[in-house]
Q: What sequence folds into this?
C-alpha cells in the first residue's frame, strides 16, 4: 500500500514528526508525547472526544491559536505548538507542592 | 435568497449523505456542510476499512451534484432560512478567515451524536479518553499496536471499539460494561434476530468477546502522574487494579441537539421531535439520524433518505421507508434500555473530582447548586468553550439538571469570523462541486 506508507513531516513544539497522509494533528501531538493544553487549574490535557466536541485538543497551528486538532489533517511543514510545551514544568511544580 | 440551496443538509454522516444524495437525485440544488475534513460522520471515518454500503454511498456522493463544504462548522442562524458557518482549516491564517452564509429553502439536520462522559477520580489524566474518542484518534493515525487498553463504559460502541483496537494490534486488557448481563442479553438477542446489521461490529464482537466482557463493572479511578498508568475497576464488591496505557471510556451516546434547539425545533425527552415524515415542529426543517433517536448507522441512512424525499415533496416515494422505519423503532427503545445507567455510577465522583473540564469545576462546588443555571452563574460550570457539551450530560445524570436554552453562537466562533465579510452562497456554488476545502470555496 504505497498510499499509506508515504509519509509527511510536520513539527510539534519544534520537533519533527513523520506521519502518514490522513493523520490528524491530534494524533501527531500524541505521537510527539505532548499534552495539547494546560487546563485553567494547571492540569495537562489530551484529546478526549476525538470529534470536535470537547475542546481538549486545542493547539496552535501555523500561528493560529485554539485549533481543534482532532478535526484537522496534518500538512507537510505544518508548525504545531501546544500550550502544554511552555507550562508543563510549571504544572509539574504545582502538582507536587 | 434566490441563489441559495433548495435543500441544505447539516452533517455528513450516514444520515446527511443519504439525504444529500437523495435530494440531489431529485434534481434539487443541494448543499452539504460538515465540520470534519472528509464525509462519513462518526462511523465511516477514513483510515478504516469501510463496509460495502459505506463505499457505495460515498461513491454516490462523489458522483452527485451536491455542493460540499467539508471542514466547516455551522454556528449560527441569524435569520430564518440562513445559516452561518466557519471554516475549520488551520491552513488559513486568522486574517483570511471567512464566514459562509448558507441560504436555503428547506433544511435537513443530520448532526449525529456524541459520547456521554461520566466523571470519576482521575478521568482528566492524559490518555483517559472516550471509547469512540480513542477509536477516532486511532483511525486518525495514532499508533496503538502493542499498547494496553481498557475499554469501559456502556453500549455496543464499546465492543465495536474493542474489536477495532484489537485488530489494530492493541492488547485489550479488559472490556467492562456497566450494564447487567440481562440488559446485554436482551440487546444481543435483538441484534441476532435483526437481519439488518444495525450496529456494525458490535454484533460480531458480541459473539467474539463475551468471555472477556465484564458486566456491571466500571472504572472507579484512573492513576498516574503525568499520564495514565493504571485503572481501578470495580465489579460488585470486588475491586482491583489493571495496568494500562489507555482507558477508552464512554457511557453510550447523546444526540447533538444544539442546532435544532437554536432553530426552535421542539425537543422531547432530549431528542428532536418529528412527524412521521421527519419534519420537525418548525415547518421546512427536517431531522434525520441520531438526533431523532439513537439507532445506529442503518436507521440513520434510512431516515436521511426519507427526510430528503419528504423535503423534496416526494412523500409518496417514502412510504416503504416509513414502514421499514416503524419496524426499526423498537430497536431504538431496546438499545436505550440496554444502555440505561446504574444509579450507583452517581457515586463515582468525589468532592475533588473535576466535572467541568473547560473551567475546572469540581463536584464539591456543584453538589449544593439548585440547577444548571445556578451552577453556571456561581461556578462557571458549562461556560467554557465546549458550552456544556461534556459536563451537561454528566450533570444531567448526576443531579438531574436539564440544560438551559441554547444561544448563538452554538460553537465559539472567532471574532474575525463574526466580523468579516461573508461569503454568499452564490460564491460557494460558483466554486463548483464538489468543493473540498475552505480555500476553494472562498
Ligand atoms: C465516536 C462514535 C463512534 C461510533 N461508532 C459506531 C459504530 O462503530 N457502529 C455504529 O453502528 N454506530 C456507531 N456510532 C453511532 C453513530 O452515531 C451512528 O451509527 C451513525 O454514525 C449515525 O449517523 P448520523 O449521520 O446520524 O450521525 P454522525 O455520523 O454522527 O454524523 C453527524 C455529522 O454532523 C457533523 N456536525 C454536527 N453538528 C455540526 C455543525 N453544527 N456544523 C457542521 N457539522 C456538524 C458531525 O461532526 C458529524 O460529522 C458511533 C458514534 C460515535 C459518537
Ligand atoms: S478531542 Fe475533543 S474537540 Fe478535539
A:
Amino acid at each position: 500500500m504505497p498510499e499509506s506508507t508515504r509519509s509527511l513531516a510536520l513539527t510539534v513544539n519544534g520537533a519533527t514528526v513523520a506521519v502518514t497522509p490522513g493523520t490528524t494533528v491530534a494524533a501527531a501531538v500524541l505521537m510527539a508525547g505532548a499534552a495539547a493544553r494546560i487546563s485553567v487549574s494547571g492540569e495537562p490535557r489530551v484529546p478526549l472526544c476525538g470529534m470536535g466536541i470537547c475542546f481538549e485538543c486545542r493547539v496552535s497551528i501555523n500561528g493560529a491559536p485554539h485549533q481543534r486538532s482532532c478535526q484537522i489533517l496534518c500538512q507537510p511543514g505544518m508548525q504545531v505548538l501546544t500550550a502544554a510545551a511552555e507550562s508543563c514544568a510549571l504544572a509539574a511544580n504545582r502538582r507536587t507542592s | 435568497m434566490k441563489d441559495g440551496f433548495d435543500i441544505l443538509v447539516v452533517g455528513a454522516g450516514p444520515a446527511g449523505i443519504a439525504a444529500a444524495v437523495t435530494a440531489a437525485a431529485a434534481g434539487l440544488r443541494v448543499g452539504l456542510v460538515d465540520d470534519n475534513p472528509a464525509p462519513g460522520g462518526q462511523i465511516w471515518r477514513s483510515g478504516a476499512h469501510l463496509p460495502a454500503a459505506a463505499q457505495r454511498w460515498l461513491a454516490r456522493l462523489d458522483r452527485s451534484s451536491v455542493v460540499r463544504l467539508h471542514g466547516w462548522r455551522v454556528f449560527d442562524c441569524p435569520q430564518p432560512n440562513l445559516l452561518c458557518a466557519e471554516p475549520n482549516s488551520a491552513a488559513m491564517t486568522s486574517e483570511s478567515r471567512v464566514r459562509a452564509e448558507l441560504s436555503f429553502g428547506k433544511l435537513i439536520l443530520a448532526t449525529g451524536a456524541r459520547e456521554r462522559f461520566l466523571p470519576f477520580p482521575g478521568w482528566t489524566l492524559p490518555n483517559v479518553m472516550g471509547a469512540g474518542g480513542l477509536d477516532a484518534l486511532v483511525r486518525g493515525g495514532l499508533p496503538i499496536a502493542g499498547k494496553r487498553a481498557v475499554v469501559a463504559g456502556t453500549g455496543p460502541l464499546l465492543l465495536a471499539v474493542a474489536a477495532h483496537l484489537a485488530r489494530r494490534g492493541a492488547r485489550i486488557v479488559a472490556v467492562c460494561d456497566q450494564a447487567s448481563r440481562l440488559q446485554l442479553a436482551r440487546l444481543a438477542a435483538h441484534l441476532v434476530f435483526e437481519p439488518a446489521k444495525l450496529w456494525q461490529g458490535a454484533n460480531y464482537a458480541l459473539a467474539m468477546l463475551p468471555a472477556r466482557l465484564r458486566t456491571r463493572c466500571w472504572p472507579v479511578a484512573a492513576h498516574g502522574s503525568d499520564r495514565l498508568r493504571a485503572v481501578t475497576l470495580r465489579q460488585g464488591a470486588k475491586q482491583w487494579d489493571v495496568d494500562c496505557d489507555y482507558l477508552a471510556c464512554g457511557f453510550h451516546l447523546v444526540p447533538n441537539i444544539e442546532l435544532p434547539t437554536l432553530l426552535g425545533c421542539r425537543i422531547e425527552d432530549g431528542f428532536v421531535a418529528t412527524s412521521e415524515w421527519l419534519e420537525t415542529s418548525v415547518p421546512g426543517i427536517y431531522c434525520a439520524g441520531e438526533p431523532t433517536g439513537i439507532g445506529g448507522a442503518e436507521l440513520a441512512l434510512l431516515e436521511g433518505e426519507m427526510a430528503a424525499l419528504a423535503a423534496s415533496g416526494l412523500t409518496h416515494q417514502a412510504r416503504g421507508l416509513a414502514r421499514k422505519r416503524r419496524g426499526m423503532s423498537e430497536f431504538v427503545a431496546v438499545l436505550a434500555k440496554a444502555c440505561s445507567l446504574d444509579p450507583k455510577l452517581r457515586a463515582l465522583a468525589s468532592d475533588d473530582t473535576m466535572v467541568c473540564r473547560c473551567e475546572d469545576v469540581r463536584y464539591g462546588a456543584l453538589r449544593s447548586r439548585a440547577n444548571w443555571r445556578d451552577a453556571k452563574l456561581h461556578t462557571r460550570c458549562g461556560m467554557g468553550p465546549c458550552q456544556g457539551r461534556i459536563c451537561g450530560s454528566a450533570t444531567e445524570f448526576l443531579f438531574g439538571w436539564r440544560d438551559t436554552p441554547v444561544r448563538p453562537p452554538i460553537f465559539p466562533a472567532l471574532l474575525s469570523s463574526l466580523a468579516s465579510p461573508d461569503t454568499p452562497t452564490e460564491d460557494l456554488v460558483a466554486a463548483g462541486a464538489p468543493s473540498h476545502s475552505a480555500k476553494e470555496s472562498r
